[in-house]
Amino acid sequence: MAHVLIIDDHDTLREGMTLTLTRSGHTVSAVRSGADGLAAYKKTPFELVVTDLKMDGMDGIAVTQALKALNPAVVVMVVTAFGTIETAVRAMQEGAYDFITKPFAPEVLRAKVDKGLELASTRRQVERLTARTAAHEADAALTHGHLVGDSEPVQRLLTQVRKAAASDATVLVRGESGTGKELVARMLHQHSPRKDGPFVVVHCAALAETLLESELFGHERGAFTGAVKRKLGRFELADGGTLFLDEIGEIPASVQTKLLRVLQEKEIQRVGGEETLKVDVRVVSATHRDLQAEVKAGRFREDLYYRLHIVPLLLPPLRERPEDIGTLARHFVAKHALRVNRRVTGLDDGALRALTRHAWPGNVRELENAVEQALVFAEGEQLTEADLPAYLGSPQSRTDATGLPVLQGDRPLPDILEDLERQLIARAYEKAGKVKTETARLLGIKTSALYYKLEKYGFISKGERPEDG
Q1: Domains of the chain, with CATH numbers?
Q2: What's the pTM value of the predicted model, to 2 decimals?
């Protein structure tokens, strides 16, 4: 339930509203003046504010103006007498979302408050999505808004992206994991006529069937157990912009059918709802799967495939553009050095040779992770082969053409991986001056997990929990 602030100088009405909303499960704070209400809001970001219009000192309009100055997204409802509806309209012009006329029944108040809280929830969702988009765009700005690389496959892809961005056609981005499919989707949005609209992402593989349907199309209150209020789906949130459906090949058959209808009719129905809502959304989808093979196997609808496949884009794996490895590595040094290790400005020839001879089964994402890890341990101004993860720099663990470690003698792969883990922990432990909490931070693991590893590899005695220095 929500935290609601009531501002009213009439004791009986204030207490009555407090009782009604408390019985509805809300947490209510009540004050008797506009100044007190403003002070309370500065301490606690209430989800909804209910304020009387006519009060001594700071009236409801002044309260609304002051609250909007503090937080433009705040949801304010004003309480007014029948004869002052014109004043209530003025309050709405100042930013109040609705008004309620005295006298009113408890159920009217509850309905108005529920409507206001739904609006507040929607605004928070939009704010979160906007913040997430801004963060991704700031990160993408480091790549000048496009894929990094001068190779012929990348340049050809960039030309295709620029042409596809100008249209409003549905795009299917194909490529192995880690090749940059989401970055391409963002490029399509940023260079399209929809660039000022929202860019909304749905990771289809991360959601169960029931959750995915609700995430895409929204749901009405009471549609299923736990649906305590209406939720807007990602199609509604992306209206006027672009919806990116990552790993589209993972969606179940029931959702495929409903998605096909949206693409054909440009309209949705929330789960548990009867109202049909028009949406104006460009869909960009991505997958690492061979969708044609999935169609032949009966796991993916053929008609949906052709709806998604109007403009196909294929991202080349990193092993097919090895000439870009150095450019990408230098880019990732510049991207992460300010945050991880400011002294590092580049890579030496030994590090570049080690990076180039690896097959990169994890593609660009794997390369970025390797460079970031090397930055943690680097001591000089240039990354060296010794700074790189052991599986890149050690001849005993080089990769074959498939990207798998080349086994030495009869050593099984689990033994090799365990050895690499021990080496990584040893380097982090030394770099951190054997301070456990700092070692855990460098490795990105919990301190409890670190103690287990330190005991496992004999860096500390079993059961030892010494104090950190």
Answers
A1: 2-123 (3.40.50.2300), 152-314 (3.40.50.300), 320-387 (1.10.8.60), 398-468 (1.10.10.60)
A2: 0.57
**CB neighbour class for 339 (10 Å; exposed up to 12, middle 13-18, buried from 19):** exposed
Distances 179 to 86, 296, 378, 465 between C-alpha atoms, Å = 59, 26, 26, 42
Name the DSSP letter for residue 1.
Answer: -
- Phi then psi for residue 174, to 5 deg, are -115, 145
Question: What is d(CA 35, CA 31) in angstroms, rounded to the nearest whole number?
Answer: 9
Q: Identity (one letter) of the amino acid at 162?
A: R
Alpha carbon 379 to its chain's center: 34
Query: What pairing do the DSSP bridges indicate for beta strands 267-268 and 277-278?
Result: antiparallel
Asked if 276 contacts 137 with a C-beta cutoff of 8 angstroms, the reply is: no
Residues facing 268 on adjacent strands: 277
CB proximity list for 264: less than 8 A, separation 6 or greater: 307
What whole-number distance in Å separates Cα of residue 73 and Cα of residue 264? 35
Please list the pLDDT of the chain residue by residue as tens digits (469 residues).
Answer: 789 999 999 999 999 999 999 999 999 999 999 999 999 998 887 989 999 988 988 988 999 999 988 888 889 999 987 656 677 777 788 888 888 888 889 999 999 999 888 888 877 777 666 555 544 544 444 344 467 888 999 999 999 999 999 999 999 999 998 899 999 999 999 999 999 999 999 999 888 877 898 899 999 888 888 788 888 889 999 999 999 999 999 999 989 999 999 999 999 989 988 888 899 999 999 999 999 999 999 999 999 999 999 999 999 999 999 999 999 999 999 989 888 888 999 999 999 999 998 888 889 999 999 999 999 888 899 999 999 988 885 444 444 444 444 444 444 556 656 767 777 787 788 777 788 888 888 888 888 888 888 887 777 765 555 544 4
Dihedral, CA atoms, 167, 168, 169, 173, nearest 10 degrees?
90
For the chain, the helix, strand and coil percentages under 3-state DSSP, each to the nearest 5: 50, 15, 35
